[in-house]
From TrEMBL:
Gene3D superfamilies: 3.30.70.2450, 3.40.30.120, FAD/NAD(P)-binding domain (3.50.50.60). Residues 6-368 form the FAD-binding domain. Coiled coil: none annotated. InterPro entries: FAD-bd (IPR002938), FAD/NAD-bd_sf (IPR036188), PheA/TfdB_FAD_monoxygenase (IPR050631). Pfam families: FAD_binding_3. The gene is mhpA. This is 3-(3-hydroxy-phenyl)propionate/3-hydroxycinnamic acid hydroxylase. It comes from the Bacteria. Keywords: Oxidoreductase.
């Protein structure tokens, strides 16, 4: 007989997206089971770039104090054209979310910290060496059958295991145990080859053309890392060099169609590829592999009570550094909605808003990654010369140059449909621009001391009234209020208004301060729990 477990939510896949989702759901008070086919968290350095929005989530999960020392913070990118000439220096301009706009990290370290956070949360049950085998559902819940190889395993931190050489998968002849998970909802974060996506019959849209790159990760690189990734758009064999802390460095080289992948990752080949950039004889090759980039997105993000997130929902080339970051956005967007529905605080229609908001932005990131890849990878001699001339020519056009060098082409999410409402009448135009965007997180002054804005937000929905004298008045759903000074004057344009903040830190709406009730009513049909504000404030 199968071992059975009943939980509010089952997460399939313990990569960064799955672990983030599990932690967020547990923090919202839900019971969570997380299953993963591998024996522990990942030990391979895959994703390498994190945005301010991703780091804001890590801040809320309580791991930034341990993650930050392992990151190269506040980085940019330098593009070299033909002949090794610098054609552009690019860096995010004026980050708004309380963290650097772009930073380099080590995925095993991030996954390991997320794993440890999940292992410490009592509402999460971990099941490693466990693979889903079938998914059935009705209007009440989802049943997932799974098999576990060997004894029950809570997993381990793959970053530490990789360093020590300890831990391994159970032997193939280990006993197999049948499992059955019954959940109200399932969130599938099981990667590009997602079992859940196939099981549910969800197809992929986009180009089937694949691009191959050689990825070489090094350790023990001497010296201090430069605060930028280098894109060598040399027209012969394009390459990307990404620095890290603690002696880490990554090289990525374009692989041509006629080249054999296995031969190109031999010691001799790797030495030949890396030597023009540095001496490889005094460093450690951590990993050399062939990476295949895809450009596809799931037809839909939802099938009944099962949601797709992360690489299960979208696959994109690495050039914009958005794959993992898109997955973390998915995790936050899906988790607060599912938590609200399970707790009876929102209607199920809010679940459809997950795809309404997230899928278009993910599709934009897939397209942007492809375009940046075209710039980097092009080997046509005529096109590369024109490219270099156009990019350097933007220096004569300041507005266009700022758009390029401040990475304004990397569109941040701006939701105009979904769980948002247009600004109510009487809101100034500039203040209306807050709606559908992530709430800024400047340092604010509370009782004479500076703190990050998020420290004053309650766990779920919040109201922020912007009053004269740069005063911010925070109110949570329980009616608790706190006041702070916006010393950075980020919210000056919204003076005299009140902002409605979602649990994922996005601004759901804005109204003149006297129209607070109308603002809450505008979303009450989707989120009845917003009525809690009225009850709390009356008392």
């Amino acid at each position: 007989m199968a071992e059975r477990a009943e939980v509010d939510v089952l997460i399939i896949g313990a990569g960064p997206t799955g672990l983030t989702t599990a932690n967020l759901l547990a923090d919202a008070g839900l019971t969570v089971a997380l299953i993963e086919a591998n024996p522990g968290s990942g030990d391979e350095p895959r994703a390498i770039s994190a945005t301010d929005e991703t780091l804001r989530v890590m801040q809320h999960l309580g791991i930034m104090d341990r993650l930050a020392p392992e990151m190269l913070m506040d980085t940019g990118a330098r593009y070299f054209g033909l002949g090794g000439k610098v054609i552009a220096d690019v860096r995010p301009g004026n980050p708004r979310l309380g963290q650097p706009g772009k930073s380099q990290f080590d995925q095993p370290v991030l996954e390991g910290l997320l794993y440890e956070a999940a292992a410490q949360r009592e509402k999460i049950s971990l099941h490693f060496n466990t693979s889903a085998t079938s998914i059935t559902q009705d209007e009440h819940g989802v049943r997932v059958a799974a098999t576990r190889l060997g004894a029950r395993s809570l997993g381990y931190n793959g970053a530490l295991a990789g360093d020590s050489g300890s831990h391994s998968a159970p032997p193939e002849n280990s006993p197999v145990t049948e499992l059955e998970f019954n959940a109200s909802w399932v969130i599938a974060c099981d990667g590009g080859r997602s079992f859940a996506r196939r099981e549910l019959g969800i197809g992929l849209q986009g180009s089937t053309q694949v691009e191959r790159w050689i990825v070489v990760d090094l350790l023990d690189v001497p010296g201090n890392p430069e605060p930028f990734a280098s894109f060598h758009c040399n027209g012969t064999r394009p390459a990307v060099v990404v620095p890290g802390v603690n002696g880490r460095r990554r090289y990525e080289f374009m692989l041509f169609d006629h080249e054999d992948g296995e031969a190109m990752i031999s010691t001799e080949s790797i030495t030949e590829l890396v030597t023009p950039y540095q001496d490889i004889t005094k460093v450690t090759v951590r990993r050399a592999t062939v990476y295949t980039a895809h450009q596809r997105i799931a037809d839909r993000y939802r099938s009944g009570r099962v949601l797709l997130a992360g690489d299960a929902a979208h696959l994109m080339p690495p050039f914009a550094g958005q794959g993992l970051n898109a997955g973390i956005r998915d995790a936050v967007s899906a988790s607060w909605r599912v938590a609200a529905v399970v707790k009876g605080e929102a209607n199920e229609s809010i679940i459809d808003d997950y795809a309404t908001e997230r899928r278009p932005h993910a599709a934009d990131m897939v397209k942007l990654s492809k375009r940046i890849g075209w710039v980097v990878m092009n080997t046509n001699p005529v096109v590369t010369r024109i490219r270099d001339a156009v990019v350097t020519g933007t220096r004569a056009l300041p507005a266009l140059n700022r758009w390029l060098t401040q990475m304004r082409f990397l569109k941040q999410p701006h939701y105009t449909t979904g769980t948002v409402v247009p600004a109510l009448p009487g809101v100034p135009h500039l203040a209306a621009e807050f709606v559908g965007r992530s709430l800024p997180q400047p340092d604010i002054c509370v009782d004479g001391e500076n703190t990050k804005l998020d420290e004053l937000l309650g766990a779920e929905w919040n109201l922020i009234e912007v009053s004269a004298g740069h005063r911010l008045i925070f109110t949570d759903q329980l009616g608790n209020t706190r006041t702070a000074l916006d010393t950075a004057r980020v919210f000056d344009a919204a003076t005299g208004t009140v902002l409605l903040i979602r649990p994922d830190f996005y601004v759901a709406g804005i109204a003149p301060a006297r129209e607070r009730q109308a603002l809450l009513q505008s979303l009450l049909s989707k989120v009845p729990a917003l009525g809690d504000f009225d009850t709390a404030l009356r008392h």
